[in-house]
Amino acid sequence: MIKTFSGGLLDSNTYVYSTDTGCAMIIDFGVPLERVKQYVDENKLTVEYLVSTHGHYDHINYVGDYKKAFPNAKILCHVDELEVIRDPEGNLSVFFGLSNSYDVGYQALNDGDVISLENSEGSADFTVIHAPGHTSGCMCLYAPSEKIMFTGDVLFACGYGRVDLKYASPRDMAASLKRLYTYKGVKIYPGHGGSASI
Fold first, then answer.
1. How far is CA 23 from CA 72, 143, 187, 198, in A?
2. φ and ψ at residue 148, rounded to 5 degrees
3. Is the torsion defined by CA of 4, 50, 90, 153 positive or negative?
4. Which member of 57, 75, 85, 141 has the greatest number of CB atoms within 10 A?
5. What is the pTM of this model?
């Protein structure tokens, strides 16, 4: 099951993905904790992973609150995104009058790594797809068994993320989009806006 929460500074999406056994993964942290925590508690979910698709302020601003609320969850990002998360210019917090590093003990992932959640029919596996361009360590999470993908700010329903910020690259974005467009028939859940299909 996928539950979408929208809000925060730039109306970003926070997702709760859960299996039928109650294992859960929360993706991105731009929405204040309260509504998400209420949903998790009401549905008796066990949050195993906290995952950042990328390190921009509007997606990680509340990561510390989530880490405190779910202290047993592993917190994950792509290895190339650690520098962005730690850099106030890279994570864009300086543009909002702050100078924050948001490294709360991230574990680093690489392209092709798999995040597994227990399910009644085995495991719900998400493969990490490194998709640089918006930042150097942007990543998408693809579940082949369900044909769904969380795309962060790489790919939206009607466009893609900016490529004019620190750690961005138009050339990398073009290559990432070319790769993602091979996933025909996959439903995407982006960092802003509604879902769509590739």
1. 13, 15, 21, 27
2. -125, 155
3. negative
4. 141
5. 0.94
CA of 173: how far to CAs of 45, 159, 160, 180, 184, in Å? 35, 12, 9, 10, 18
Written as one letter, the residue type at 159 is: G
The Cβ of residue 71 has, within 10 Å, a number of other Cβ atoms equal to: 8
> Which contiguous run of DSSP H or E holds residue 109?
strand 107-109
Torsion-angle region of 164 (φ positive above 0: left; ψ -120 to 50: alpha; else: beta): alpha
Q: How many CB atoms lie within 10 A of CB 47?
A: 22
Task: Give 21-70 pLDDT, tens digit per residue.
Answer: 999 999 999 999 999 999 999 999 999 999 999 999 999 999 999 999 99
CA dist., res. 197 & res. 22, Å (int): 26
Structure tokens at 179: 């790769």
